[in-house]
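User: Structure please.
Assistant: Input sequence and predicted structure:
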Amino acid sequence: MRQQVSSERYAHIQRVAELAAAIAKANGLDVEKAYLAAILHDAARDFTDEQLLQLAPPENEIERRHPLALHGRVARRLAQDWGVQDEEILEAIEGHVYGVSPAHKVGMALYVADVSEPARGVNHEIRQKALAGQLEEAYREAVVCKVRYLRKKGIEPHPRTLAAYQAVLQQGRPTQSAG
């Protein structure tokens, strides 16, 4: 994997892996799974559009227009080719681009670590919540923040991102008693 990414990307990957492991530990998750998913999450991030389109045929118009959205799916495929069989790790790798179900804790840890790693210079409060054992709240804020950012920029969110957004909004609503 190291030979497939730039030195800058590799430094990002290392920071994300360390943060994902710390988030996993703070939230009682499998640290090794979070670390491995994070180490592999951007394995295809530096691929050309042509490579991404060849390795992961687009499933919708957004992916056709923005092949970079495919890098998580391609990284998942590379991880499988390298012998990773754990579905939780594979789903986390693919889901780091779009978001994951709120039931997917390792995927949430990776997503939060990726969007809040210190060198990005943003989302400090999201990172702090995740490290304080508030992963669900941190993830909800990260997904909402991403959708708002995309919409502000006039970029249509990926359908999977919208699904994650709807899921975290539903999860964040208090249940009403049937009285």
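The chain has ten helices and no strands.
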